[in-house]
Structures are given as structure tokens and as C-alpha cells.
Design goal:
Layout (H helix, E strand, L loop, with lengths): L1 H4 L2 H4 L8 H7 L9 H11 L12 H10 L1 H15 L3 H35 L3 E6 L2 E6 L8 E4 L8 E13 L1 H4 L5 E3 L15 E2 L4 E13 L5 H11 L5 H30 L4 H15 L4 H18 L2 E3 L3 H8 L2 E4 L11 E6 L7 H13 L6 H9 L8 E6 L7 E8 L2 E8 L1 H6 L1 E6 L2 E4 L2 H16 L3 E10 L14 E10 L6 H10 L3 E5 L4 H10 L7 E3 H6 L2 H7 L5 E3 L3 H13 L4 E4 L6 H6 L2 E5 L4 H6 L2 E3 L5 H41 L7 H15 L20 H29 L4 H18 L1 H4 L13 H19 L13 H25 L4
Parallel strand pairs: 9-18, 9-21, 14-17, 18-20, 19-20, 21-22, 22-23
Antiparallel strand pairs: 1-2, 1-3, 3-7, 4-5, 4-6, 4-7, 8-23, 10-17, 11-12, 12-13, 13-16, 14-15, 16-17
Helix pairs in contact: 5-7, 6-7, 6-11, 7-12, 7-26, 10-11, 10-25, 11-25, 11-26, 12-25, 13-25, 14-15, 17-19, 18-25, 21-22, 25-27, 26-28, 26-30, 27-28, 27-31, 28-30, 28-31
The chain binds adenosine-5'-triphosphate and magnesium ion.
Length: about 850
């Protein structure tokens, strides 16, 4: 009722121009928020608050999509035609085969997706809302227009809306405006035409960097400003490494299939075979060739990978990221909290002459106490280093920290004195200073002092200490607020010296990753000497360093040319982190990025695999594909192995399909030309295909060998083609032997020939998995998983029962003599032995 009555003016693009009281009325909300019932009702109308249109499709949609597959559709049509022509039995069996294989597929995939969804929910971002007049937390996806949301520092703005009330609320809108400085937000009415100028509006996807407040949600999901951009971006987002590989594989198989179908159709028509029968035969061959279980195998493999990673406390938000993690060859990390303990300690506080100074500490302490932005570990270290109170000072105003300025200032007052107190990266502070204070006296900051300051910084940085400079400036008493422009003509008081030791397990974790073939680069906002020191401490190369200043001189193309030759990037800003990732991608690396800060979000987003940790800021967690629940680097190496294992199993399925399966279909096509009858009835081909599919259900569960996870593996089409040509030839050779033996030795008629061939092809197709699942000799490989053994043997028995049991007549089979059976078993055994020899040619050593 209310939702329908939301007047148009509340939903116009420039909603911030409407006064907040009016918007509240229009949205049926107020200080009490919505009622839970009303929120539920609106959720049903407006849908979940997600930018990307709902990813989970209903089972019905999935069924539709499968039926829409042209091959299946063609087969259905064929079944109908044969049914109408009176062959009800064949119609019924085709229909059964089809529905069985489709149900199997849908059920498995659905379960895998539910697993993935549950994992995603466990790390979903929460919002603090007021509903029924009470405070509660709900998943941001449950927000609806009219909700009142409380915002604190570091929160992601969950939807578009306006400020109801605010205390020094600062928002980072870089995502939207490209403007790195925090934007100041108030509840004052605003007539701005452009969203970037709307001082009372908040936009989904931006984040709070200072202060607090409450907002009224006006638009959610795809209707938000960023949502619109996001879905436009998602539409032409570069495909993930997995999608790209699968697409290329699809093209390869489609070509083979089309070629085979046309070939069969043409030759049959030229030979004046019955058109309907030839058509059905060709379609059945095509169905036999399509890797129809590939989506299922992939989802199930990935979902199982996700579950195994969850046991190791890594939550995977996007399933295909597991594969990308296995394919990753370059991992970029930020420094603090990733390579180092996030617990930083204050080791010293010194004046410009490197003597201990309490004055530096007390002003640093005031700055950290009064700042209302995201508390950094540096602030924590200062606060816990001194028990001083504010000593009569009161807080008036603040210019929050941002990653371009790399400093933060507060305005404090005592008696009739107003003081701006700034602290930040030494370069940033010195650039804003005009004087240095020695023993209470100010000296002009000349070239000599500049050099002295640089020397002090270099000396400490070499030993791995990071410095923050502290500076002050007297402000006229009438002035009660400060802005970026006031951070000038400062007087330098000295430095705070921090120790940030590397994590205990960092060195061993890095060694594990390196031995897996992953190159590691550090992308840090810190000083280059400090970054080099940490790199050395954890065993990373540290010679080749590039700084943000150098990067800002480079064009994107120039960066691409140089990015491979750099180990460490220092003093870079958030944008540059993203640029470096993009450059690495352009060099065809599969890139991961791990970080926790607001400044890491662009890089996390740009990487193939974005990784964050549970304690990270919401923006970083929202952009990430995976989240480490424990900030423990060593799980990453385990994750990489897990990713490669999923890929190895996907590759097993692909190899199965391209080797004996392809070989069989090819021999069948060729045989159909030579023989006066069809080598297998279309129905028998479909049965064969179904049984073969059943045997492969166990592949996602299978184990892999050590060498399969030793190197980053990507989709190598040449390799897959090589494999299918060599293995396909081996398989066709033995098909030809079967062919000759059946016709010449046993003088088989059509029914006998088909039964013999069916049994041979079931035996070879199913059992070859135990040969090609490993590069090693079958008895030296790891033991196949019980589920794989069960599905393979089960399918094998089912196939044999179909062809040899008393009901065989129903499917057009006939009795096989002991002699024929023995011959077929011998041929199959010989095939498996030669396939085992051929696989060494087909899979070259890595
Ligand atoms: N709270 C703060 N107050 C003043 N200056 C700060 C504060 N936090 C960070 N800085 C300055 O900004 C610089 C960049 O910030 P930070 O080190 O967090 O970037 P980063 O890229 O996340 O680095 P890292 O790789 O170490 O995580 C710091 O080296 C420091 O000089
Ligand atoms: Mg950081």
C-alpha cells in the first residue's frame, strides 16, 4: 500500500533536493524506522538490495535453459517425430534418457549453488537499522527504501539515500567522483543538480571515513547510482580466467561436433540412407559429444573446493575464484597486517635532532585522541604508549586522513589558544612545514634541515622502523573549523617511531607460495626503505623498487612494459594499486591481491582473485572474492593447492570427453559409412552416453597427484587438442580392431555387431578414467576416491546389464557368445594398456 503510494517526487533522480521531512513522509518512515512487517513487504516488491541482478536462478529457469540447448531441443523434436510415427517405445526411452540426465544435472548444480550461497551469507555485510523503533542488524541485502540506517566509521554506504543527522560525517566518494579527499556530509537541504555536489546525499558503494550519522534509504539494489554503473560494468566486465577457458573449450568442441554431424549427414544422404534414421543418428552422435555434464562437474568441483577451504577458515564468495586462485601466478599483497603483525608499537618519539621528546608524544597523543576517522594501528600504538589525558584541550574540528595527503589534522582549543595538530607521512608533513622547532625555538625549514630530516627518516627506515611526523600551527581564536587549506606553514615538532615486526609465519608462508610457482610483490603506501626491510625479513627479493612518484610519471602502456621487473611498490596511492594490477593482467598474469584497507579496495576489485580478511574494512571485504577468517597467510598456499586440485579434476573430465568418447563417436561416424547398417541405433548411442555420464559423476570427488598442483595451470587449448588427437587415435585403432573381429571372425549381423560394439565402448570409455586420471602408472598414482570407483563400477555394471540382461531385446541388443565376450574383454584390456602408454605422449611433462 505504502510502496505503491510512494510519490514520484521521492523517486526522482535528484531525490536529495526534496527536504528530508518530506522524503520521510513520502517513504512512510521516520525516527522509528519502518516496521518489520512493512520492511518485509517492501523487500518482496523492490527485491534484494544487490547491485547485480539476482544470480541464483530458479530450478524452472535452469530446466528451461537446458531444454533451450539446441541439441537437446533437436533431440526432443526427433523423439516426438519418432513417437508420432508409431515408435512409442523409442520415444519413451529417449524421453527417459533425456529427463534422467537433465534432472541429475540440475539437482547436483542446485545443491552446489546452495552451498555457495550459504558460504556467501556467512560473510555478508551487515547494516545497523532502526525498525519497529528498535536498533537491529540485518544483512544489507535486506534493506528497503524507507529504512533508517546508522552509519559508523569504515561502513560501506549500503544504498542511496539522504542524511537524517550527522556528526562530522566524512565520506570517501572516490569510487564515484574520482576525488580522493573525503567529502563532508550534513543534513542541511541542498539544491545541487549533480550528485557529486549533493552534500546531503549518500551513495551506495562509497564509504564513511570519519564521523557518524543516520541515513534514510531512498533507493536500493540496481536502482542506486552505483548499482546502475555496476551492472553496466558487470555486463562488459572482462571474463574470469575460468570463463575464458570454458568458452574457448566450448568453441573447440562445437567445431568438432558440427564437423562430425555434417560429415555423417552428407555421406548418409549421398549413400541414400533413410533420412530420418540418419538424422537421428547424427543428432545422437552430437549429443554423445557434447560435454553436457561440464557445468555440473565444474560447479560441484568448485563447491566441494569451497567447502574444503571453509574448513581451513577461508570463505569463498565467488565460486570460480577457487579456480582462479589455482591459476594465479602473481600475488600482490599490502604490508601492514598482511605481512606484518597488525599490532604496531611506538618505539620512540624524537625531535628534529633525534633526541627523545615528550612534546612530540603529547601532541601526537592529542591528534590520535581527537581524530574521529578510521582508527589505524598507528593511532592505537600512540594511544597505548601514553596515559596522558587531554590536559585541558578540547576538540573543535578535523580534516580526516586520506591516502593522497597521507596526513590528518585536528583543531584543538585550550584557554584562549587554538592549535592545528597534524601528523602523517614525513614527506607529506614536511611539504606543509615552514619551520622546525628545536628546544622551544622555531628555525626556518631550509635545505639543510630538509636534508637532516631525510637522513633521520632513512636511518630509521633502514632498520625497518616507520616514522610519522608531527607538526603544529597556531590558529586564530575566532576560527572553529579547519580545512585542507589550513595545513600549511606548519612547525615541525619531530617524529614518532614505530616498530611493525613481520608475522611469525610470513616467511614460511611465502616460501610455500613461491615453491608453488607464485611470484609475490608488495604494494604498499609506506616508505620504500621500510617496505624493503620487511621484504628482506620475510625472504622476498627487495632490490627492484618503484615508487608512486615514478608511477605517476608513467603512462599505462609504459607501466605494463616495466611492471614485471619490479619487486616492491612503495608510497603508492589506492588508484595506483589498481593500475599495477591492471598492468599485470595485461601481461597475461593471473593476478591475486590481498589487503584489508579502504585503500586496497580498487586493487582487490581489479585482481582476478581479490582476497581480504575478516577484520578488514567493509569496503575491502565487499570487493573481495575470498575472505580469510584467521589472518593466517599459510592458508593461502593450501588454497592455491585446493584451486589447482579443482582444475585438475575439471581437466580430467575434459580429457575423458575428448579422448575415448571423441574417439568412439568418430569411429562410429566412420563405421556408419562403411557398414550397410548403423553401427549403433540412435537410442543405443543415447543409452551409452547416459551410462558414460553416470560414470563421471564421481570425478569432482577424486584425489589428485602432487605434480598436478605443483605449478599454476591454465587452460591450454593446444594441450587439450594434442591430448584428444593422440588418445582419440589410440581409441579409434582399437575400435577398428573390434570392428574387424566382429565382422570377420564372428560374422556378426546388425544386432550382434551393435551389442558387441556397445559392450566394448562402455568398457573402454568408462575404465579409461583409471588410466588418465594421473600422469603416473595407475598403481603408483594416488588411490582413486571411493565415490569415483562406485560411480564407475556402478555405471559399468548397469551398462553391461542393459546389453546382456534378459531385457536386451527392448533396446535392440542380442545375446553374446562366450567367445565374443572374451574377445571384447581382451581388446578392451589391450586398449587400456596402450592408452596408458600413449598418455605419456599426450600429457607432456610440465
Ligand atoms: N592514522 C594516520 N595518521 C597519520 N598518518 C597516517 C595514518 N595512517 C597512515 N598514515 C600515513 O599514510 C601512509 C600510508 O598509509 P598505510 O601505510 O596504511 O598505506 P598502505 O598502502 O595500506 O600500507 P601498508 O602496505 O603498510 O598496509 C602511512 O605510511 C603513513 O605515513
Ligand atoms: Mg594497509
Amino acid at each position: 500500500m505504502i510502496a505503491q503510494s510512494i510519490p514520484a517526487e521521492a523517486l526522482v533522480a535528484e531525490f536529495w533536493q526534496t527536504p528530508k521531512e518530506e522524503l520521510c513522509r513520502a517513504l512512510g518512515s521516520g525516527p522509528e524506522g519502518l516496521t518489520q512487517t512493512e520492511a518485509k513487504r517492501r523487500l518482496a516488491i523492490f527485491g534484494a538490495n544487490r547491485a547485480d541482478a539476482s544470480q541464483s536462478r530458479s530450478a524452472l529457469r535452469k530446466l528451461g535453459q537446458r531444454l533451450w540447448n539446441p541439441l537437446i531441443a533437436m533431440l526432443l523434436a526427433a523423439a516426438l517425430v519418432s513417437g508420432l510415427s508409431g515408435d512409442i517405445g523409442s520415444f519413451a526411452i529417449i524421453a527417459t534418457v533425456l529427463s534422467l540426465s537433465i534432472t541429475l544435472d540440475i539437482v547436483q548444480e542446485h545443491r552446489a549453488e546452495r552451498t555457495a550461497e550459504a558460504l556467501r551469507e556467512s560473510v555478508a555485510i551487515q547494516a545497523d537499522v532502526v525498525r519497529d523503533g528498535r536498533d537491529m542488524t540485518v544483512s544489507v541485502t535486506a534493506l528497503v527504501p524507507g529504512d533508517v540506517v546508522k552509519l559508523r566509521i569504515g561502513d560501506l554506504i549500503p544504498a542511496d539515500g539522504i542524511v537524517l543527522d550527522a556528526q562530522e560525517l566524512h565520506v570517501n566518494e572516490a569510487l564515484m567522483t574520482g576525488e580522493p579527499f573525503p567529502a563532508f556530509k550534513t543534513d542541511a537541504p541542498c539544491a545541487a543538480a549533480l550528485p557529486a555536489d549533493a552534500t546531503n546525499a549518500l551513495f551506495a558503494g562509497t564509504s564513511t571515513v570519519g564521523g557518524s550519522g543516520r541515513m534514510l534509504v531512498v533507493r536500493t539494489g540496481g536502482r542506486t547510482r552505483f548499482g546502475a554503473i555496476a551492472s553496466a560494468m558487470a555486463a562488459d566486465a572482462p571474463p574470469t580466467a575460468l570463463e575464458e577457458g570454458v568458452r574457448r573449450l566450448g568453441v573447440l568442441i562445437l567445431r568438432l561436433t558440427l564437423f562430425l554431424m555434417l560429415f555423417v549427414l552428407m555421406t548418409h544422404l549421398v549413400a541414400h540412407r533413410p533420412a530420418m534414421e540418419s538424422f537421428l543418428f547424427a543428432v545422437a552422435l552430437a549429443v554423445g559429444l557434447t560435454p553436457e555434464l561440464l557445468p555440473m562437474v565444474m560447479t560441484v568441483t568448485l563447491a566441494r573446493g569451497a567447502l574444503r577451504m571453509a574448513k581451513r577458515k577461508v570463505i569463498v564468495k565467488r565460486l570460480s575464484a577457487i579456480h582462479d586462485l589455482g591459476a594465479m601466478d602473481t600475488l600482490c599483497v599490502d604490508k601492514t597486517g598482511t605481512l606484518t603483525e597488525a599490532r604496531i608499537t611506538l618505539e620512540a618519539h624524537i625531535d628534529p635532532q633525534d633526541r627523545s621528546s615528550d612534546r612530540v608524544l603529547s601532541f601526537a597523543h592529542l591528534n590520535s585522541t581527537f581524530q574521529a576517522g578510521v582508527r589505524s594501528p598507528l593511532d592505537d600504538a600512540i594511544l597505548s604508549a601514553s596515559r596522558d589525558g587531554a590536559d585541558g584541550w578540547v576538540r573543535l574540528s578535523e580534516v580526516p586522513f586520506d591516502f593522497e595527503r597521507r596526513c590528518l589534522s585536528v583543531l584543538a582549543a585550550r584557554h584562549d589558544e587554538h592549535m592545528l595538530i597534524a601528523k602523517g607521512a614525513p614527506e607529506s608533513i614536511l611539504a606543509r612545514c615552514a619551520a622546525v622547532e628545536i628546544d622551544g625555538l622555531a628555525h626556518p625549514l631550509d635545505a639543510i634541515w630538509h636534508q637532516k630530516m631525510a637522513d633521520i627518516q632513512a636511518r630509521y627506515a633502514r632498520d625497518g622502523f616507520r616514522l610519522l611526523a608531527v607538526a603544529i600551527r597556531s590558529i586564530p581564536v575566532g576560527q572553529r573549523t579547519i580545512a585542507v587549506g589550513d595545513e600549511t606553514s606548519l612547525t615541525m615538532l619531530g617524529f614518532c617511531v614505530f616498530a611493525d615486526p613481520p608475522k611469525q609465519d610470513a616467511a614460511s608462508a611465502i616460501e610455500a607460495l613461491t615453491s608453488l610457482g607464485v611470484t609475490i610483490k608488495i604494494l604498499s603506501g609506506d616508505h620504500d626503505a621500510v617496505v624493503s626491510h620487511v621484504a628482506r625479513a620475510v625472504g622476498l627479493p627487495s632490490e627492484r623498487v618503484m615508487t608512486g612518484a615514478e608511477i605517476s610519471e608513467l603512462t599505462d602502456a609504459a607501466l605494463v612494459a616495466r611492471v614485471d621487473d619490479v619487486d616492491l611498490f612503495a608510497r603508492i596511492d589506492p588508484d595506483q594499486k589498481g593500475r599495477i594490477i591492471a598492468a599485470l593482467r595485461r601481461r597475461n598474469h593471473v593476478v591475486g591481491f590481498m589487503g584489508d584497507g579502504v585503500n586496497d579496495a580498487p586493487a582487490i576489485h581489479a585482481a582476478h582473485v581479490g582476497i581480504s580478511v575478516t577484520g578488514a574494512t567493509e569496503v575491502a571485504r565487499a570487493a573481495a572474492d575470498m575472505i580469510l577468517v584467521t589472518p593466517d597467510l599459510s592458508v593461502l598456499a593450501a588454497g592455491v593447492r585446493e584451486g589447482r586440485r579443482t582444475f585438475a579434476n575439471i581437466l580430467k573430465y575434459v580429457r575423458m570427453g575428448t579422448s575415448s568418447n571423441f574417439g568412439n563417436m568418430l569411429s562410429m561416424a566412420l563405421a556408419s559409412i562403411v557398414l550397410p547398417f548403423l553401427p549403433l541405433l540412435p537410442l543405443q548411442i543415447l543409452l551409452n552416453n547416459l551410462i558414460y555420464d553416470l560414470s563421471e559423476i564421481g570425478i569432482p570427488f577424486d584425489e589428485v597427484d602432487r605434480e598436478d598442483v605443483a605449478q599454476p595451470e591454465t587452460w591450454n587449448m593446444a594441450g587439450i587438442l594434442r591430448f584428444s588427437i593422440i588418445m582419440g587415435m589410440a581409441s579409434s585403432l582399437f575400435d577398428a580392431i573390434t570392428f574387424v573381429v566382429l565382422l570377420e571372425v564372428f560374422e556378426a549381423d546388425a544386432a550382434l555387431f551393435r551389442t558387441g560394439w556397445f559392450v566394448e565402448s562402455i568398457l573402454t570409455q568408462i575404465l579409461v578414467i583409471f588410466v588418465i586420471r594421473s600422469r603416473r602408472m595407475p598403481w603408483r598414482a594416488n588411490r582413486p576416491h571411493n565415490i569415483l570407483i562406485a560411480t564407475s563400477v556402478g555405471a559399468l555394471l548397469a551398462g553391461l546389464a542393459l546389453a546382456l540382461g534378459p531385457w536386451r531385446g527392448l533396446f535392440g541388443f542380442t545375446a553374446l557368445s562366450g567367445g565374443i565376450l572374451a574377445a571384447i574383454i581382451a581388446i578392451a584390456a589391450a586398449y587400456l594398456v596402450s592408452a596408458n602408454a600413449a598418455k605419456r605422449l599426450a600429457i607432456p611433462e610440465a
